[in-house]
Q: What sequence folds into this?
């Protein structure tokens, strides 16, 4: 080895580890990657963590405290030039390791072609051939939460790098300062004329087409039943209806229905960006939704959640569990014997009882403090 090569090798050895984490699919999937990102940072705080994400989730990646740099993935449908530019970028970053939380042949090929020496992914499908560290998980069995599968992959990468994983981080995986939350609540209280002393219950009835969900009439029935139970306990709540792209008319229609039953409901005005929308969810005292991206944002913020899930094996309440504290998490699915996507079989009265009890308990805890 020449002297210049020895100097280059010494500089490379002294550089902080540079790790690439890939989660380039939907919003909810990306939010469930944050515990794994927190795990990597806890065990290797000096490491530089980059993520490969689609343009859609990049604004949220900007807000993640465990991410140092963002690379936007042009996607499978991008042309050859875009794929060549992405490969060149990966090579130039000189990553020491790559963690792919959801593997596809294109991403595996890119990591291999980029010469990333340590490449970790689930041992699934033929894309695993591009990885030299494969973890058998059998996620299709849905034996564990998705975010825990992701944490286990992060721990496998750390072990492959000769690092001892720290004690697993705990919620919130998206920690915000009290001032940030107070600013969100203050702005919302003024805009929507909400009483800050009352519980604010957020309801997201849309699904973005990504998950089986309750219907709008079911959500109206649920909210009215919760409101009635809370009123009987002396708790008056404000309902804030949120909406994704193209869902505002449906949210407004649901709002009018709720007002017709005496429920105090408002529609959250359109936000300036996905990041702004996500931060607004920190103001919620409870977030109610199907298994959608917004539900998992709320979970990452450690807000109390009530999620509605199908019984389909790949989409169970356990597999797509939110990553908030267990005491802040409720989940409801069709009963055994009902169709796996038969959301009408869910007992909404029982769900309303459980949800109102959670809200009343937390309201009492807040008053006591």
A:
């Amino acid at each position: 080895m020449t002297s210049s090569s020895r100097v280059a090798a010494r500089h490379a050895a002294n550089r902080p580890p540079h790790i690439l984490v890939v989660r380039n699919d939907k919003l909810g999937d990306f939010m469930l990657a944050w515990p794994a990102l927190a795990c990597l940072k806890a065990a290797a705080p000096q490491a530089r963590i980059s993520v490969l994400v689609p343009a859609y989730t990049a604004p949220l990646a900007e807000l993640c405290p465990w991410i140092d740099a963002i690379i936007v993935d042009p996607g499978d449908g991008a042309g050859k030039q875009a794929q060549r530019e992405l490969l060149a970028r990966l090579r130039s970053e000189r990553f020491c390791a790559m963690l792919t939380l959801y593997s596809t042949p294109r991403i595996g090929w890119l990591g291999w072609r980029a010469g990333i020496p340590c490449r970790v992914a689930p041992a699934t499908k033929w894309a695993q051939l591009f990885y030299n560290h494969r973890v058998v998980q059998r996620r299709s069995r849905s034996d564990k939460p998705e975010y825990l599968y992701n944490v286990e992959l992060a721990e496998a990468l750390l072990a492959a790098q000769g690092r001892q994983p720290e004690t697993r981080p705990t919620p919130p995986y998206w920690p915000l300062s009290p001032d940030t939350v107070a600013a969100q609540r203050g702005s919302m209280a003024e805009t929507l004329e909400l009483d800050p002393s009352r519980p604010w219950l957020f309801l997201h009835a849309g699904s973005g087409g990504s998950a089986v969900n309750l219907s709008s009439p079911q959500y109206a029935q649920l909210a009215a039943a919760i409101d009635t139970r809370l009123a009987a306990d002396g708790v008056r709540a404000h309902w804030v209806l949120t909406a994704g792209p193209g869902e505002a008319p449906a949210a407004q229609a649901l709002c009018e229905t709720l007002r017709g039953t005496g429920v105090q409901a408002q529609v959250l005005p359109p936000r300036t960006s996905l990041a702004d929308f996500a931060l607004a969810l920190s103001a919620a005292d409870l977030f109610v939704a199907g298994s959608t991206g917004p539900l998992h944002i709320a979970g990452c913020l450690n807000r109390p959640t009530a999620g509605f899930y199908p019984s389909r094996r790949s989409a169970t309440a356990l597999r797509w569990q939110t990553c908030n504290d267990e005491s802040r998490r409720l989940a409801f699915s069709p009963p055994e014997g009902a169709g796996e996507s038969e959301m009408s079989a869910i007992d909404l009265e029982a769900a309303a009882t459980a949800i109102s009890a959670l809200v009343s308990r937390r309201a009492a805890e807040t008053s006591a403090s």
About this structure: Residues 1-13 have pLDDT under 50 and may be disordered. Residues 178-368 form a domain with the Rossmann fold fold (CATH 3.40.50.2000). The chain is about 40% helix and 15% strand. The longest strand covers residues 48-53.
